[in-house]
Specification:
One of its GO terms (molecular function) is oxidoreductase activity. InterPro entries: NAD(P)-bd_dom_sf, SDR_fam, Sec_Metab_Biosynth_Oxidored. This is Ketoreductase (KR) domain-containing protein. It comes from Elaphomyces granulatus. The chain is of the alpha/beta class and 356 residues long. The protein has one domain: 3-Layer(aba) Sandwich (Rossmann fold). Helices cover 46% and strands 10% of the residues. It has 12 helices and 7 strands. Strands 3-2-1-4-5-6-7 form a 7-stranded parallel β-sheet, with helices on both faces. The longest helix is centred in the middle third of the chain and has 26 residues. The N and C termini lie far apart (41 Å). The chain binds NADP nicotinamide-adenine-dinucleotide phosphate.
Length: 356
Amino acid sequence: MVSLQTIRANNASLKTLGPELVAVFGTFSLLSPYVCLTVGGTSGIGETAAREFVRHTLAPRVYLIGRSEAQASRIVSELSKLNPDGKVSFIKSDISLLRGVDKACDEIKGKESRVNLLFLSAGILTSKGRDETAEGLDKKFSLHYYSRMRFIYNLLPQLNAAATSSTDANNDGRLSRVVSVLSPGREGRLLLDDLSLKSNYSLANCAAHACTMNSLAVGELAASNPETSFIHAYPGAVKTNADREFGPLVRLAISLLMLSFWPWVVPLPECGERHVYAATSTAFPPKAAGGKEAEKAAVGADGVKGSGAYLVHWDGSTCGNEKILSDCKSKGAAKKVWEHTLEVFEKICGQEGGKY
Ligand SMILES: NC(=O)c1ccc[n+]([C@@H]2O[C@H](COP(=O)([O-])OP(=O)(O)OC[C@H]3O[C@@H](n4cnc5c(N)ncnc54)[C@H](OP(=O)(O)O)[C@@H]3O)[C@@H](O)[C@H]2O)c1
């Protein structure tokens, strides 16, 4: 477990670092202005992480992505007061649709040449069965896996630019990281011939596929983008508005359950602090860092220190269901998952444009 003291020391250092401290700190030069994209930043874990990020960095440029304008304007106004040198903007988009993701990414690409941090936490809690979007994917599965991968895929040039930007005239920061907040450690068996669960949908299969596919995809992405770190993070049990789609009775039951497990519930502000640590700590360097950085690094998703892809537990330690992940490895599942993901992108967002 990484102590809160260590987490807070890391986060406090983000503001005080100056150019002359770059070599001391190691892999990242955490100079302002950062560019941070919080997909799911209008509530819960994305909101609390964005707040801590804005609190601890110098003049960051932060984009919150979601649908709720009312929520967004409250958060933009609060965060702008918290750090008057920062710039917080809202992009409204329904990102359960991959074409909605493309629209949001086009807007960002028009404004930013680099993105230091892509924080992905958009999601829903629902007991509905398969709920197809106009693009033919299940809505929940799309939010928890496909749309997140589409953000990463679209913004890889900007993430790679962030990784190398310290050599440019602005001497900007080299932090280049993606954090996808879901459920590492809860990987389950994959149905390799029905990865999108067209014929085998159930809430349990959806949870297992979304989790395992996130865990495998971060490995694939880190291998082909060695200058960027990719993290699949588990937040623990956190009281947020995630139950908003349920009726009052179910919401009451969830609140009572949370109350009875209170000692194990991660307070929302702490959850934000811990995710800023995951998003910035040198414990999770990109693969290209190598050398001494890798020796000091956390163990990656493939069991190798500093491999650039990390499965991070709520307390900052590393996790992952080793049995399932080694079974996936023996079947070459990571490659199959990534090829399937690109096929989905091509079918929905390619020139023909249509349904999967
Ligand atoms: N809270 C927990 O205990 C817990 C535990 C394990 C895993 N997780 C996972 O962590 C993630 C974040 O959970 P949370 O508790 O922070 O949930 P939350 O408070 O409900 O926040 C979800 C975010 O997703 C956005 N969103 C949902 N549907 C969207 C859509 N179609 N288009 C654009 N944005 C959309 C929401 O924005 P708008 O409403 O503005 O659209 C909101 O900002 C989820 O994937 C969840 O499964 C949470």
